[in-house]
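Sequence design from tokenized structure. All designs in this work follow the same two-part layout: the structure record, then the generated sequence. An example of the structure record is given first.
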């Protein structure tokens, strides 16, 4: 008889015969969470983008990228739990793995979603007390943030050719929490032409440090397109990693607000 059944954040019921001992993580921010939960040798596979913690990046078996998982490598690890994310992983990869291994999926657009994911993974892996500690630390940190009163508009770019993080994304949630108004209202990840960026003319343009490595040349190009915008590079991990790295986000955001 199965020991327990969990409902993941996509509403799927995931049944496990015991607490998992061979976990594969397909999401960088959730990989770091597994480390901070103290799971150590119980994590057997990660993606090539799971750069935190560094010792796992060097030592764990890599199963490809988040969008192009090496299914044969995952299966060879014989995992008793695979942890993925609706946005970061491809539907085809996840559906190909489901007949062979239990797969728990997160679906995250808000801070509440992120904290719920941390709690659920703590429950699934029998590390709930540590998960509760991490959640409390994150909540305390976010309680120190005093949002910008003026609510300046911001365009948050993640890729070149230019692509923005729009509404109903976790990045947009972080922007809102610290007092920015995301100028992209009706799309999640729209591609933007130079002409469209020029017409938007936001108060700020943030260039994320990931996944695209924006450089000074892009700042100059965008400044020419939007001369009245303040343009700066920002730490993408602070805006988009929704695992235990959220512990570090409030101090970064507070400094960002101070430097406005």
């Amino acid at each position: 008889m199965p020991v327990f059944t969990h409902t993941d954040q996509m509403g799927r019921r995931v049944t496990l015969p015991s607490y998992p001992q061979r976990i594969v993580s397909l999401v960088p921010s959730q990989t770091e969470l597994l480390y901070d939960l103290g799971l150590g040798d119980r994590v057997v596979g990660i993606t090539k983008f799971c750069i935190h913690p560094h010792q796992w990046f060097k030592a764990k078996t890599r199963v490809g990228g988040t969008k192009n998982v090496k299914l044969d490598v995952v299966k060879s690890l014989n995992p008793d739990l695979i942890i993925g994310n609706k946005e970061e992983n491809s539907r085809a990869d996840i559906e190909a793995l489901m007949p062979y291994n239990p797969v728990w999926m997160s679906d995250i657009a808000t801070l509440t979603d992120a904290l719920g994911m941390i709690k659920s993974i703590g429950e699934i892996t029998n590390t709930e007390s540590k998960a509760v500690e991490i959640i409390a630390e994150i909540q305390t940190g976010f309680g120190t943030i005093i949002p910008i009163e003026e609510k300046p508009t911001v365009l948050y770019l993640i890729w070149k050719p230019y692509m923005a993080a729009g509404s109903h994304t976790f990045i947009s949630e972080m922007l809102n929490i610290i007092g920015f108004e995301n100028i992209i209202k009706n799309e999640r990840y729209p591609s933007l032409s130079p002409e469209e960026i020029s017409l938007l003319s936001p108060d700020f343009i943030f260039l994320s440090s990931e996944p695209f490595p924006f450089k000074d040349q892009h700042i100059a190009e965008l400044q020419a397109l939007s001369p009245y915008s303040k343009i700066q590079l920002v730490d993408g991990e602070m805006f988009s990693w929704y695992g235990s790295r959220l512990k570090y986000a409030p101090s970064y955001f507070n400094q960002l607000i101070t430097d406005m």
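Residues 153-258 form a domain with the Rossmann fold fold (CATH 3.40.50.1980). We note this feature because it recurs in several other targets discussed in the main text.
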